[in-house]
Each structure stands twice: as C-alpha cells, then as structure tokens.
Design goal:
Helices cover 32% and strands 17% of the residues. Strands 1-2 form a two-stranded parallel sheet. The protein has helices at 9-18, 46-58; strands at 32-37, 63-68. Helix 1 (9-18) runs parallel beside helix 2 (46-58).
C-alpha cells in the first residue's frame, strides 16, 4: 500500500509467500498466511488476485485466513 491510499493485494501476498522460502524443507510446521486489509485492491481485478494467490500457494500449501477491517 502507499501513503496515497493504494492497496496492492498481489504484492502483499508475494512478499508473504516469499518468507516460506526460508523454512527448512524438513519442517513439519503448519503454514499459515493471515491477510489483513483496510481497503480494496486498487491495482488488480479479483480474478487476477485469486489466480496469482492460487499460483503462489500451489508451491507452499498454506492455509490462508483473510480479514477486512473498517470497510
């Protein structure tokens, strides 16, 4: 997001999923993404966001929880 109110969901998910690359491949931990937002994505369509998140998560297999605040 930017100080002018822009919100980029895909960029946020890309950053979040990149953190999983630091995990040990033998780790048996549950992988979870908690996504919090206070606004609508101003960069992408819902279909594009879904497709990108599905692609990112296909390599990770995380459970994704989403929360929208103040809308």
């Amino acid at each position: 997001s930017s100080s002018k109110g822009g919100t980029n969901f895909v960029e946020s998910f890309q950053t979040g999923f990149s953190l999983f690359s630091n995990l040990e491949s033998t780790s048996n931990c549950n992988k979870v993404v908690i996504f919090l937002t206070h606004g609508n994505d101003t960069f992408s369509t819902p279909t594009y966001i879904y497709d990108q998140v599905a692609q990112l998560n296909s390599q990770v297999g995380a459970t994704i929880f989403t929360f929208s605040l103040g809308m």
